[in-house]
């Protein structure tokens, strides 16, 4: 019997009603379990919604922004691993014996963080990842960025997580691959998806990993998807790509036996000439 890893990808737009987000999310776990999924992937900041106070949209200086009442309220509304919403997902994951990547703003030292929790089938938090590449050209400059990329084991599979804009930096997926990631899971919330689908396809190919991405529906949005790494003699490497406006769960079946055989046979990333990459640790030059 082949080792098939089924991921349920949630394509749904959360709202300002956090209790409704929790209700929908827990119902999605039950639906995914009934359909044989081992893990459920949610879009970016699903529990708290992805957005900022209106006062930040004019991009005031960070020190000034932190003094605003709306900023302090935004920070206080961010979750922690002990918040009731996260505890509810941990309890549901254990009861259903299903994994989940649930997302929210969380409280950093002084500012919110954009966070994904990877919860195992026993309800334990296996990985807590904070978005490294915050969109500092916009209001995400007010977030505390993460300090690194990490991999954990889930049911015998090495999983890594990156969030949305991390995808635009090839180093994100490469760092996860170098740590042994076999599948990379991507919570997302953005539009203009066509070039981003191509990016994810390439990330899967160049790093010999499977990739799944969850994105809310909307005009030029949606397109939650999954890609496998095998590209030779195939028209493309897409497992599934949802439509822009579909609302619900889509499923991706990763053939782990095929992925592992491909990784063993191919040399992408194995013969890296690191001595030639002298600018990778420096600042951008263009």
What does this 3D model show about the protein?
- By secondary structure, this protein is an alpha/beta fold.
- It has one domain (4-276): Carbon-nitrogen hydrolase (Nitrilase/N-carbamoyl-D-aminoacid amidohydrolase), CATH 3.60.110.
- It has helices at residues 18-34, 62-65, 69-77, 84-96, 170-178, 193-207, 256-265; strands at residues 4-11, 39-41, 99-107, 112-119, 125-130, 151-154, 157-161, 183-187, 210-214, 225-227, 238-241, 248-255.
- The strands form two sheets. The chain has a six-stranded mixed β-sheet with strand order 5-4-3-2-1-12.
- Strand 1 (4-11), helix 1 (18-34) and strand 2 (39-41) form a beta-alpha-beta unit.
- The longest helix has 17 residues, at 18-34.
- The chain starts with a strand and ends in a 21-residue tail after the last helix.
- The model has no long low-confidence stretch (mean pLDDT 95).
Mean pLDDT: 95
Distance between the termini: 51 Å
CATH superfamily: Carbon-nitrogen hydrolase
Sketch the major β-sheet: 6 strands, mixed
- Beta-strand level of the residues, as a percent range? 15-25%
User: Structural class, from helix and strand content?
Assistant: alpha/beta
Which percent bin holds the helix content? 25-40%
């Amino acid at each position: 019997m082949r080792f098939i890893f089924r991921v349920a990808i949630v394509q749904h737009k959360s709202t300002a009603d956090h209790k409704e987000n929790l209700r929908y999310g827990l119902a999605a776990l039950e639906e995914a379990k009934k359909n044989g999924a081992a893990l459920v992937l949610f879009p970016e900041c699903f529990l708290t919604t992805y957005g900022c106070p209106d006062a930040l949209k004019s991009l005031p200086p960070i020190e000034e922004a932190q003094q605003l009442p709306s900023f302090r309220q935004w920070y206080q509304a961010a979750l922690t691993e002990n918040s009731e919403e996260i505890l509810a997902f941990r309890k549901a994951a254990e009861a259903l014996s299903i994994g989940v990547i649930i997302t929210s703003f969380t409280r950093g030292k002084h500012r919110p963080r954009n966070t994904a929790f990877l919860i195992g089938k026993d309800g334990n938090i296996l990985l807590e990842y904070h978005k490294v590449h915050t969109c500092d050209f916009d209001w995400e400059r007010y977030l505390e960025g993460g300090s690194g990329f990490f991999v954990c084991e889930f049911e015998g599979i090495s999983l890594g997580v990156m969030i949305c804009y991390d995808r635009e930096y090839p180093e994100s997926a490469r760092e996860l691959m170098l740590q042994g990631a076999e599948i990379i899971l991507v919570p997302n919330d953005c539009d203009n998806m066509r070039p981003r689908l191509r990016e994810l396809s390439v990330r899967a190919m160049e790093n010999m990993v499977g990739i799944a991405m969850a994105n809310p529906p909307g005009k030029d949005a949606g397109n939650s998807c999954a890609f496998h790494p095998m590209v030779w003699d195939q028209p493309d490497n897409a497992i599934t790509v949802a439509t822009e406006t579909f609302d619900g769960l889509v499923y991706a079946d990763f053939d782990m036996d095929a992925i592992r055989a491909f990784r063993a046979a191919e040399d992408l990333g194995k013969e890296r000439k690191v001595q030639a990459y002298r600018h990778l640790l420096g600042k951008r030059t263009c």
